[in-house]
Amino acid sequence: MKTLLKIPTNLFELPEFIKLTQLAKNDQQVRTAQLLWLRLACAAGRTGHDGYVTDPTAAPLTKHALAGLVNLTRGAYAAELLQLLLQADLLQRQADGHYQISHWERYALTDCAPNYHGLFKFDTPATANATPPTPLQQYTPEQRTKLVATTGKILAYLQQQSGKQFSNEPPTQQLLANLFAQKVTVKQIKWVIDWKCKDWYGGDFWKFVRPQTLFGPKFTQYLLEAPPEPTARPAAGPTRHQYLRDLFEMSCGDIETILWRAADEKVTVTRAEVEAIGRELGH
Predict the structure, then answer these.
(1) Model pLDDT, residue 116
(2) What's the CA gap between 254 and 156, in Å, rounded?
(3) Which residue ranges does the record assign to the Phage conserved hypothetical protein C-terminal domain (predicted)?
(4) Which one, of 14, 23, 19, lies nearest residue 210 by Cα?
């Protein structure tokens, strides 16, 4: 019997999906793995056997057959994505070879109206049980636009230092929003990029020079491991003016952020100076 699925509106912000983002090689693999999980969840809903992707009383499907079930033509790629879902605890593989959606009780809706014939409904968690809003969710549209611009500049710097290409995607913006919420500065982020590009160059860890690793949960560890930063440039004359222009742009024009970042770098800056720089830059 078909099971109706209850899909949380904050699905991709659940801990398992955040872990998936951290494990994946790139943003494209994140999106493909997310789509694979959704297709498997739909298959489990149609099967109606407590989250099993296929009927548990039948023989388990091979990886190639499972790839066909979710419209993937490359069995090897499907196997790689399945492994990611297993590592992120989004999927379980039973001893008999059958796959089952993890935490099925979270998605199975048992009290649906009998005349509802769809496969799933979107569910907004109750306030008491909801995952706290992420920093990115609290951004205004204007702040989000500025964050996208700042993310682009940071990724351009990472590309310059590593020679690798990265897309300016929401998962990366989320990681940076998390860091900014912890009062991490763009200067510190660039310093971690410099340090890890040097520390991991040519070694087995070079593949981890990527946003989801550098800007993820271990960022503070990398920052503490890095050698001391060079002495900050003196804030005087034309150098001070350029410093304020750079700080304004890197802080997305947010005056409060600019003030505490300047204070963190032991530079005395007034609100009036910041507002003047903003007018000069056309903000």
Answers:
(1) 43
(2) 21
(3) 154-223
(4) 23
Interatomic CA distance for residues 19 and 37, integer angstroms? 14
CA atoms of 46 and 40, how far apart (whole Å): 10
Pinpoint the alpha helices (H) of the chain: 15-23, 27-47, 63-69, 75-87, 104-107, 141-162, 170-181, 186-200, 211-214, 219-225, 237-250, 255-264, 271-280
Comparing CA positions, the residue from 249, 41, 49, 282 lying closest to residue 150 is 249
Place of tokens 């605890």: 89
Distance CA 181, CA 240 (A): 26
Beta carbons of 271 and 255 less than 8 angstroms apart: yes
Q: Phi and psi of 230, rounded to 5°?
A: -60, 155
Residue-level length of the chain: 283
Per-residue tens of pLDDT for the chain, all 283 residues: 566 777 877 888 888 888 898 888 888 888 888 888 888 888 888 888 888 988 888 888 777 777 676 667 666 777 888 899 999 999 999 988 899 999 888 888 755 544 444 445 555 555 444 556 677 777 888 888 999 999 999 999 999 999 999 999 989 999 999 999 888 999 999 999 999 999 999 899 999 999 999 999 999 999 988 887 655 454 444 467 787 787 777 777 778 878 877 777 777 888 888 888 888 877 6
Q: Where are the domains of the chain?
A: 4-123, 134-230, 232-283
Burial class (CB in 10 A: 0-12, 13-18, 19+), 9: exposed
Q: Which two tokens stand for residue 165?
A: 């290409």
Query: Distance between CA 73 and CA 84 in Å, rounded?
Result: 18
Amino acid making up residue 126: A
Rounded to whole angstroms, the Cα distance separating 120 from 267 reads 54
Q: Does domain 4-123 have CATH number 1.25.40?
A: no
- pTM for the model: 0.44
